[in-house]
């Protein structure tokens, strides 16, 4: 298993890019699932699918002792709010708006991540860091055409904003709260918490007469989409993401998210779609922003992050 202490900065950035690439595959998969499955049951099924892979894998690779020393109560809190509530709000937002609106709003994640580091970790803002964030945001807005979707900024967009805040906070807390666990353990503990919260909430919703899934509309395409959405875009992506956040910090790692539209385009090209040089240029600007933000970051800030993140 990959050990974070041995990672170079280049390796951590490549892992973060891979996380975003795998996560991007889940966006079109979600479109097939929204409708037959309402947001809360869909979120719970997605979490259950991811946990069904990660928990046995963690047990097989690291043994029962690793599971016993984990703080499951803390995992319930961090996972329930950061990833359970965050994922539910994101699915709800996408059901009320469109993928473009969601993508535009998630472009603000680096701002939220760096704000958390400045407030909670003592990171100092520098010209290079500000420039790196600005370049990342610029690349993201170029990718998305610089506009919200047809729905504009309404309830769905507000849900997306809160979702991004939850996810960014949850990612940081996952690294901070479990310094003695491996990235696989960290991801599994918090996803277990998210699974417990969303499954309980979905069960209560159905038992109280709320909307239930339309199981008759679930066929092979939806099952395949759920596997992509749960295993690829959550289980695999989350482990890679936690590895990169542990090494880079949430602020820098979140800069990579603005290259997601380029990755989506790559998938579409593989399926017969057309190449967009605008998307390629936007991705290059995002990469430049990541390099600028890291290459000239003040030494004290980096040391502070490493001291607060023993596993990095």
From TrEMBL:
<feature type="domain" description="EamA">
    <location>
        <begin position="12"/>
        <end position="142"/>
    </location>
</feature>
<feature type="transmembrane region" description="Helical">
    <location>
        <begin position="150"/>
        <end position="169"/>
    </location>
</feature>
<dbReference type="GO" id="GO:0005886">
    <property type="term" value="C:plasma membrane"/>
</dbReference>
<feature type="transmembrane region" description="Helical">
    <location>
        <begin position="189"/>
        <end position="208"/>
    </location>
</feature>
<feature type="transmembrane region" description="Helical">
    <location>
        <begin position="40"/>
        <end position="61"/>
    </location>
</feature>
<keyword id="KW-0812">Transmembrane</keyword>
<feature type="transmembrane region" description="Helical">
    <location>
        <begin position="250"/>
        <end position="271"/>
    </location>
</feature>
<dbReference type="Pfam" id="PF00892">
    <property type="entry name" value="EamA"/>
</dbReference>
<dbReference type="InterPro" id="IPR051258">
    <property type="entry name" value="Diverse_Substrate_Transporter"/>
</dbReference>
<feature type="transmembrane region" description="Helical">
    <location>
        <begin position="73"/>
        <end position="93"/>
    </location>
</feature>
<feature type="transmembrane region" description="Helical">
    <location>
        <begin position="99"/>
        <end position="120"/>
    </location>
</feature>
<feature type="transmembrane region" description="Helical">
    <location>
        <begin position="223"/>
        <end position="243"/>
    </location>
</feature>
<keyword id="KW-1003">Cell membrane</keyword>
<keyword id="KW-0472">Membrane</keyword>
<feature type="transmembrane region" description="Helical">
    <location>
        <begin position="127"/>
        <end position="144"/>
    </location>
</feature>
<protein>
    <recommendedName>
        <fullName>EamA domain-containing protein</fullName>
    </recommendedName>
</protein>
<dbReference type="InterPro" id="IPR037185">
    <property type="entry name" value="EmrE-like"/>
</dbReference>
<keyword id="KW-1133">Transmembrane helix</keyword>
<dbReference type="InterPro" id="IPR000620">
    <property type="entry name" value="EamA_dom"/>
</dbReference>
<feature type="transmembrane region" description="Helical">
    <location>
        <begin position="277"/>
        <end position="297"/>
    </location>
</feature>
């Amino acid at each position: 298993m990959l050990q974070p202490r041995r990672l170079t900065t280049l390796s951590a950035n490549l892992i973060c890019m891979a996380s975003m690439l795998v996560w991007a595959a889940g966006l079109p998969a979600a479109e097939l699932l929204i409708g037959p499955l309402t947001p809360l049951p869909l979120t719970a099924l997605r979490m259950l699918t991811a946990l069904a892979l990660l928990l046995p894998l963690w047990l097989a690779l690291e043994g029962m002792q690793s599971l016993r020393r984990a703080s499951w109560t803390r995992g319930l809190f961090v996972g329930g709010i950061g990833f359970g509530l965050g994922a539910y709000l994101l699915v709800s937002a996408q059901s009320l708006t469109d993928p473009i609106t969601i993508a535009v709003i998630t472009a603000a994640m680096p701002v939220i991540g760096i704000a958390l580091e400045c407030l909670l970790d003592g990171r100092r803002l520098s010209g290079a860091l500000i420039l790196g964030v600005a370049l990342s945001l610029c690349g993201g807005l170029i990718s998305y055409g610089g506009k919200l979707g047809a729905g504009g900024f309404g309830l769905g967009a507000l849900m997306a904003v809160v979702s991004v805040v939850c996810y960014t906070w949850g990612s940081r807390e996952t690294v901070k709260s479990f310094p003695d666990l491996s990235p696989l353990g960290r991801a599994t503990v918090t996803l277990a918490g998210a699974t417990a919260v969303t499954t309980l909430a979905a069960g209560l919703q159905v038992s109280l007469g709320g909307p239930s899934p339309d199981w008759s509309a679930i066929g092979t395409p939806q099952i395949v989409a759920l596997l992509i959405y749960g295993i690829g875009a959550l289980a695999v992506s989350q482990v890679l993401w936690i590895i990169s956040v542990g090494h880079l910090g949430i602020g820098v790692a979140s800069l990579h998210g603005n290259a997601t539209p380029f990755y989506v385009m790559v998938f579409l090209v593989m399926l017969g779609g057309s190449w967009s040089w605008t998307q390629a240029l936007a991705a290059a600007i995002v990469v430049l922003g990541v390099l600028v933000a890291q290459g000239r970051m003040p030494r004290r800030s980096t040391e502070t992050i490493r001291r607060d993140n023993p596993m990095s």
